[in-house]
Amino acid sequence: MDISRRSFLKIAGGTLAAAGITTGIGVKPAFAQPRKIRYAQEVTTICPYCGVGCGIIAHVRGGKVVNTEGDPDHPINKGALCSKGSALYQIANNDKRMQKVLYRAPGADAWKEVEWEWALDKIARNIKKTRDAGFETANAAGEVVNRCLNLAAIGGAALDNEEVYCLTKMNRAMGLVYVEHQARI
Question: What is the mean pLDDT of residues 42-62?
Answer without folding.
Answer: 85
